[in-house]
Structure formats: C-alpha cells, structure tokens
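Following the same procedure, the fold was encoded as tokens, giving this record:
***
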Amino acid sequence: MMAGNAQYKAFPTKPSPPMTLLTASLYLLCLAFLLGSALFVLSRDPRSRLNRLYALLALSLLGWAATLLAFAGQAAPAPLLLLGRLNFAAVPVAATAALLFVRELAGRPLRSQGWLWAETLALALASLLTGGVDRAERVVQGQHLTAYGPLFPLYLAHVVLLLTLAVLTALRPPPTALPQARRSLRLVGWGMLAAALVGLVTNALLPYSFGDFRWINAGPLATLLFLGSVGYAVFAYHLFSLRIIVRRALVLAGLVTLALELYQLAVTFLSHLLPFGDKEARGYAAATVALAVNAFTQQPVRQWLERLLDRALGAPHGQRRDR
C-alpha cells in the first residue's frame, strides 16, 4: 500500500483501537503530573542543574504524551503529519535529558555535553522537518498508521543507547555516593527501566517490526511508573531538597486552616456585636471585618509557622529562610 512516496509495511497492519474514556483520563493524569512536577521541582531551585535536568526530562515527556493524545483525535493529513513528527522529535530530547539527569544525580556529570546535545538536536530537527524518521501518516478506517523513514533505525539506536546508559548508571551507583543517594538512584533507575521497556516495545518494536499499533498508548502512560519512582524518592530519600518542600507545604496548609478557623470565629463573634438590625447586612459587615483581620494577621502567622517548622525539621540556626 502506498501513500504518496511513503511505503507502508507489506504485512497486514494492526491499527490502534479507539481511545477509551479510561485511557483518555490516564493521559490527562499523566500530563498533569508531568507538567506539575516539572514546574514544582524547577521552582524549588532554578539554579540547580539537577532540578533543571529533571524539568527538561518531564517537559519533553509531556510533549511526547501530549502530541500522541492530540494525534489520536486528528484525521486531517497536514496536522496529522505535524503531530506525528513532533511526537518523534520529543523522544531523543527526553532520552538525552534522562541520561544527564541520572549522571547528575549520581554525582558524575558529563564534562563535555556539547557533542551529545548537537547530535540530539540534529536528530530532533531531522524528525520534525524531514521525512527521515516519519515519512507519512495516514488514517485507515478511522485508525492511524505510520510510514517510517530511512533514518528511523539510527533514531532508535540513539534513543536505546542513551536510555540503556541512563538505566545502567542508575542501577549501578558509584560506591562513593551517600547511601541515601544510592537508594534514590536505584529507585529512579527501576522506574526508568520499566517506563523505557514499555515505551520501546509498544511504540517502536511492535509498530516498526510487526505493524502492530494496538498498544501505542501504553508507552506514554508508562511514564507514570517513572513519575511514581521519582515521587517515592522525593518523599523517602529527600530527593530535590525535601525539607524545603515539606516546609512550604505545611506552612501553606497551616495558613489555610488557621485562616478558615479565624474567619469563622470572627464572623460568628462580629455578627452578634455589630449594631445592624438587618441580619444580612450584619453578616456582610462581619465578613468584611473578618477578611481585614485575616489580611493583617497572615504575615505574622506565616512567620510563626516557619520558625516552628524550622525547629521541627532541624534547620540550622541562622539559616536563611526560603521565600
């Protein structure tokens, strides 16, 4: 079968089934976690190389998953091809970011990264702007099929090599690393291995070698396994400065709780005290005064909670508070 100059597989293809509500919901959950974790980790310390690399990894995975989700609902040829190529372009960036993130976590950053980024960007641009990786996309009876270009084997080798190096680095941490760092590395490595295996099998091996597109949605959804391992490492092994994360989360929770309680007490007290005959007018006046009280007391309460939590979490004396 032909579409333009693109040669599709000669053997019978097995297109992906229509997306179910459960699959779409898992996609949205995955996208929310990827975006939220990237922004959250980056906001903790934008100058940290480890945090920046994780944010890049999460955002590139976000691009991969989001384009595949949009791809599933598209039928027009031009947008279909653009989404397909964007999907392919995001993967080498994610693979490179994964390797650099793991090496940074292991305390062994690559000294010369220019050549790696040059190769990655060249491959991403070739995937996006040419038919070297994705020659054509078509819809057959409502199902999407891909024609792979001549550069796809090289593209796949690049991705597999970098992911293999990332997993090996994580599962074999250096003996000089602290025990906590070694546990974090192994946990992240197992999550990365699980997500990479599912993604490579369902989004590369089965479609390219056997024309089987039925499982392509499993690849992006498998990133939840990686996110789960990172999340557990955050809370179990203090990855990404857990003390700061816990401190701010608890301060926010305490502020909300105290503000609601103070507001309720102020409204109850003032509604009986203010000299208004009309009950509704008395309620509005009490609410206004209560909001003003909350506004003026929030800063002292926040500072008190921060001092309390600094002592509870063992912050060094005189350490500058994070804002």
Observations:
- DSSP finds ten helices and four strands in the chain.
- The beta strands are 2-3, 6-7, 134-140, 143-148.
- The CA atoms of residues 12 and 211 lie 7 Å apart.
